[in-house]
Amino acid sequence: MKKSVLYILLPALLTLAAGSFAQQLDRSRIPAAGPAPTIQVGKYETFTLANGLKVFVVTNRKLPRVAFNLVLDNDPVQEKEFAGYVDIAGQMLRTGTKTRSKEQLDEEIDFIGASLTTTESGIYGASLKKHQDKLLQLMSDVVLNPAFPENELNRIKRETISGLASRKDDPNAVAGLVGNVVLYGREHPYGEPTTEETVERITLDKVKSFYTTYYKPNVAYMAVVGDISLPEARTAVEKYFGSWQKGTVPKHTYPADSGPAKTRIALVDRPASVQSVINITHTVPLKPGMPDVVKARIANDILGGAGGRLYNNLREKRGLTYGAYSSLSPDKLIGEFSANASVRNAVTDSAVVEFMSELRRIREAKVSPEELRQSRAGVTGSFVRSLESPQTIASFAINTARYKLPADYYQNYLKNVAAVTAEDVQGIAKKYIRPENAHIVVVGNASEVAGKLKPFGEIEYYDVKGNKIEAGTKKAVPAGLTADQVIDNYVKAIGGREKVSQIKDVTTNMTATVQGMQLAVVQQRKAPDKSKMVMQAQGMELMNITSDGTRATMAQMGNQQEVTGDELAALKIQNTLFGELSYDQLGVKRTLSGTESIEGKDAWKVELELPGGNRATEFYDVASGLKTRIISVQKSPEGPVSQSTDLGNYKEVNGVKFPHTITTSIGPQQIKLEVTEVAVNQNLADSIFEVK
How far is CA 278 from CA 245, 349, 421, in A? Predict the structure, then answer.
């Protein structure tokens, strides 16, 4: 009986209580913020070796592990014509010592289940507590006795150059590179770009000079974190790093650019782009530890954090992008403000309008109480969560020493967050966000976006390496020159119509390396439009695309599906042997639209309209007549997808020239195919191209 009564009375009591509470609560007013939570930032202990190495110890017994993080506090180095050597020097520390080869070093690290990484600014190692002594032995050997083997330098240079080639086809990477060039200038270490040419110049002596000049204990900090006490750490670090010799390390100063007097546009033309990458950026005089840093974090969070004004405007309200964000970052030399997004070419100007509107709005009016409350709560939560990691405490200790912060800087951090007002946010915005003195970096199809960008400022053109180039106006097409004449010149350049027409089938063997995996690709084509392409890795078939000229199938890892619709139409054109001779029969419309610069050389630009609504652009070198690039744009459920293919290293086979280097890029992904053999007129059987 009592139980039944309770079930009846409880909802009634809750309703009554809720009604009473509602009468006392004024929901039209946002509750006053409570006091900032009291946070106990973890403790650390510190000591300094005689050679100047400063050590910070954070004891944490939760797991039987220990980590050592060595950080060098050097000024950035201007690398000039050897740009890239500082980063390579950091990588080479991990490639062997005077007592251990790279292979031996790898084996010893793996044997104890440890990790060990090196950079130009330090070294990090972690292992189980029981392997602590061995780990420190390996780390000190790497720091004190690097060997810098020549063969490893050559390997790293090759990998670096390969990575640079890939980044040229990543619009975000290009925007970052060009943004740094216009923001800091080439005479500043943040603005000098690393290129294939600068990497090629790097010598072993240059790499060694960085190590001998800048790897010194008196500019170094070491964080020791884990299952270790201060006495243990002191003994261990003294044992393995006490003999490290200190020395005089050069200091560097660089001029700080205050930004352009008025907004300027830096445009990089990527004809393959169906989207534009936008980055609005300028320098700011904001350094770590300044009182403005905490306020700047709140201001930027409201403007360009996850769910901030930029995101809500450009994505949620207007549907211009999947995401729009900003950053307001302090730096020991010069800070940076940046606001960025990727948008469709057609709405590039609209996106810039909304960016500029939001940058002005946060300067001109105070943020709302709700925006301020949410931002402070988010920053507080992020800070509190970061304290769960002992590494955070160690980084706090190092930052306090490096940037000469007040001893209680992090203990008072949340109090300073809670004290930020709407007036503070507006003041920070006025001081550090300057839309009228910014660089607007855009990487996209200039023919579609350049005209729309002119109202925002003077346009300067840059290539993917950050070089300023002539205004991107196309050279006039000579009177009477047509797309068909350009294509005819190409046919003549590869051997002539008579030689080309004698070729009935072509087999091309190619190799490539993708993420360290060796690929073997065999492409077979038979006139007029039969084709088969097989890609293998270590003898296993990864992909098989077969077309009999009417039907086509694609098999990936054993899963096969039929190619239909527009994809089939595009594949048929792509696989037609010397399809340039059959564009009329294939229903391909051609238009000569001027010239573009491809790797510094003028090329005729021929626009193609393909059946099914797809389109492509072919580029023919003006001087040689050879085709150097193909850009195709195809429809997909996610929107237009762009693919760029560069053709080079033409070699003659049976009187006809074929490209022997084929580089294909889809977004940031790039595959470089090296042709090892081209065989023609092998009487390929039709059964090879049978679609099952």
Answer: 47, 10, 31
d(CA 221, CA 91): 19
How far apart CA 265 and CA 352 sit, in angstroms, is 11
Spatial CA neighbour of 347 closest among 247, 423, 227, 453:
453
Residue 65 has pLDDT above 60, yes or no: yes
Q: Measured between alpha carbons, how far is 639 from 226 in angstroms, rounded to an integer?
A: 49
- Other Cβ atoms less than 10 A from the Cβ of 549: the count is 17
Is 134 within 8 Å of 108 (Cβ atoms)? yes
Q: Of 371, 358, 295, whose CA–CA distance to 328 is shortest?
A: 295
CA atoms within 13 A on the CB side of 448: 17
Residue pair 641/666 in contact (Cβ under 8 Å)? The answer is: yes
Q: Which of 344, 649, 314, 685 is nearest to 524 (CA)?
A: 685
Q: What is the residue type of 651?
A: K
* pLDDT, tens only, 660-677: 999 887 655 678 899 999
Q: Which is it for strands 275-284 and 439-444: parallel, antiparallel or unpaired?
A: antiparallel
Per the CB < 8 A criterion, the answer to whether 245 and 420 are in contact is no
**Which residues face 525 on adjacent strands?**
506, 531
State which H helix or E strand residue 621 sits in: strand 615-621
Contacting residues for 9 by C-beta, under 8 A, at least 6 apart: none
Element (H, E) at 652: strand 641-653
pLDDT for 24 equals: 45
Q: How far apart are CA 400 and CA 419, in angstroms?
A: 21
Task: Record the tokens describing residue 433, joined without a space.
Answer: 């966000």
pTM of the model: 0.77
Give the H/E segment covering residue 57: strand 54-59
Burial of 609 (0-12, 13-18, 19+ CB in 10 A): middle
pLDDT average, residue stretch 240-266? 91
116-155 pLDDT, tens digit each? 999 999 999 999 999 999 999 999 999 999 999 999 999 9
Sketch out the chain's domains with CATH numbers.
Answer: 45-241 (3.30.830.10), 264-469 (3.30.830.10), 483-689 (2.50.20.10)
Give the bridge partners for 665, in sequence order: 644, 670
Q: How far is CA 569 from CA 547, 551, 552, in A?
A: 11, 10, 10
Cα–Cα distance measured from residue 452 to residue 182, given in angstroms and rounded to the nearest whole number = 21
Alpha-carbon gap, residue 197 to 82, rounded angstroms: 9
| b/e per residue 164-189 (b: at least 16 CB within 10 A) | bebbbbbbebbbbbbbbbbbbebebb
Q: List, in sequence order, every residue forming a beta bridge with 633; answer none if it has no partner.
A: 615, 642
Our CA angle for 489, 490, 495, nearest 5°, is 100
